[in-house]
Every structure is written in structure tokens, then in C-alpha cells.
From TrEMBL:
It comes from Marinobacter subterrani. It comes from the Bacteria. Belongs to the LysR transcriptional regulatory family. Pfam families: LysR_substrate (PF03466). This is LysR substrate binding domain. InterPro entries: LysR-type_TF_proteobact-type (IPR058163), LysR_subst-bd (IPR005119). Residues 10-95 form the LysR substrate-binding domain.
Length: 98
């Protein structure tokens, strides 16, 4: 996660002293729980907190985002992508991310 903070600082042109980062949590759900408990701020994937942002449980203090280091792929044997259930899922997930 330290790499994410470094990229965040570079993108915004700011410098946050290392001493200001007190708690390092590597598991995303634990990060969100810490923020909800008032323990600070965190860089997290929007998809993990979209519902909480919409509900007003969390706020996004600055309107900034950056590309994620990781990507997700739908993988399965080719024949599975011809089934009705999988085609429906692919259609749904594609509409959700576009």
C-alpha cells in the first residue's frame, strides 16, 4: 500500500512526511473498518466503498482518482462463455463497469 500513497503524492504534487502515516493495514476491508471507526483516511478502490459513499457513511474529501495497479478478468473455459447464465453475467457486469 505504501506504493499507492507514493503514487498518490506524485499525482497530486504533494509530499506527506512518512511520520504522518501511523497505521499500515494491508487488507482492504480492515482499512475501511478503520476509517469507519475514525482512525484516519485511506486509499481504497471505489468499488469497495461506493455504497458507503452513497449512504453518507464515508466522504471523498477530494475529487481525485487514479488507475488501479491491478485489473480483474473474467476467466473460464471457452465453452462456459456460450452458456446462457454466463452470457447474462457478462452482459450485466459489462453494463455495471461502463
Amino acid at each position: 500500500m505504501q506504493g499507492s500513497w507514493t503514487e498518490f503524492q506524485k499525482a497530486l504534487g504533494i509530499d506527506i512526511p512518512d511520520i504522518a502515516i501511523k497505521l499500515a493495514v494491508n487488507e482492504a476491508s480492515a482499512q475501511v473498518e478503520a476509517v469507519l471507526a475514525g482512525r484516519g483516511i485511506s486509499l481504497v478502490r471505489h468499488t469497495l466503498v461506493a455504497d458507503m459513499l452513497e449512504a453518507g457513511l464515508l466522504i471523498r474529501p477530494i475529487n481525485f482518482s487514479m488507475p488501479a495497479e491491478y485489473h480483474y478478468y473474467l476467466v473460464a473455459p471457452e465453452a462456459k462463455f456460450r452458456t446462457e447464465k454466463v452470457r447474462a453475467f457478462v452482459s450485466w457486469i459489462s453494463s455495471e463497469i461502463s
